[in-house]
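Exam prep: given the inputs below (a chain plus iron/sulfur cluster), describe the expected output before reading on.
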Amino acid sequence: MSKAYLPPIGMLAELTHRCPLQCAYCSNPLELLKANREMSTAEWLALFEQAADLGVLQVHLSGGEPTLRPDLELIIAGLSRRGVYSNLITAGVGIAEGRFQKMADAGLDHVQLSFQGAHAATTEKIGNHRGAHEKKVETALAARRAGLPLTINAPMHRHNMDEVGDFIDLALSLGAERLEIANVQYAGWALLNRNALMPDRDAVERQVRIVEEAQARLYGIMTIDFVTPDYFAIYPKPCMGGWARDAFMVAPDGTVLPCHAAGTIPSLTFPRFGEGEGRSSLSEIWHDAPAFNAFRGTDWMLEPCRSCDRQEIDWGGCRCQAMALAGNAAATDPACVKSPLHARMAGLIDEAMTAHAAGTDSFRYRRIGAIGS
Ligand code: SF4
Ligand code: SF4
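Solution:
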């Protein structure tokens, strides 16, 4: 008999990989799926029914750009019927007038809108999309007019780190309840572009001082969540709160994974949701899929995690980062000072600075078909 695990609380639904922007730090996989690989409305609705049955309380509707799905209101309504909290994560470009009111009427609970820069030139450069900044400002105002709570996402790296104070002012001016300042995680396209994105240590220290001062000053006015950069850390983050512990994600074609970068671990095979040959129910996947059980809990840990008193604080860090930097997904995350590879993180920062000084650190913009099939 299979072992039963606590139910998941959250789910990230990547409805599509299509996106009008081409951010060089995008967390999507390098081999992006075309529209003809996306699940249908009926398949997504069936998946959300099973997610609600399994215990999921909140679904983050993401992508790519989720508003490119014309059935988004139907999907939101399906979640609302089951009392599941829905959060739209959007790039905020090209959204038709009135769409936010329709999504609010369908039961949308919250909007998270990303800005690539605090200024128009930066947003255009990072997303490779002319006029993106002005469109995002209009999107923020449209979301507020529809009465939706708003979080501004600011993914941080070398090219916008000195705008951190302006990001705070921008979020305040847009009436956001929350600002998430998140240093990019080097997975997906960000790993490919690491040399072009890596900030220097002085910039990171300036950023920390500005954010901490603003967190204190704006207490009770706007919440500022801060995701610090792994490469400058002493201990890793509890990636996803622990592997397959309380959340999972679903790719546009229905592949179910413990996190968005898990597909980079070659020893694991990830199941597809649905009916028919090779497909499984969400409950079967959550409880029984070997890929979900591979790094659950602490039994899989090697030293130094195996005997460490922080093992249920950070769960050994990120399995995908361990794969990328140590070549072994079961290794201690090299972001940890106890990892024998920790010094490699500092070496990679130096490598990025050298490439920057030599001018060999140009972006590879994210777009479907740029890499792989
Ligand atoms: S990070 Fe940029 S390219 Fe990737 S989905 Fe978000 S807006 Fe689109
Ligand atoms: S050794 Fe492992 S459990 Fe301990 S702090 Fe480092 S990553 Fe976390």
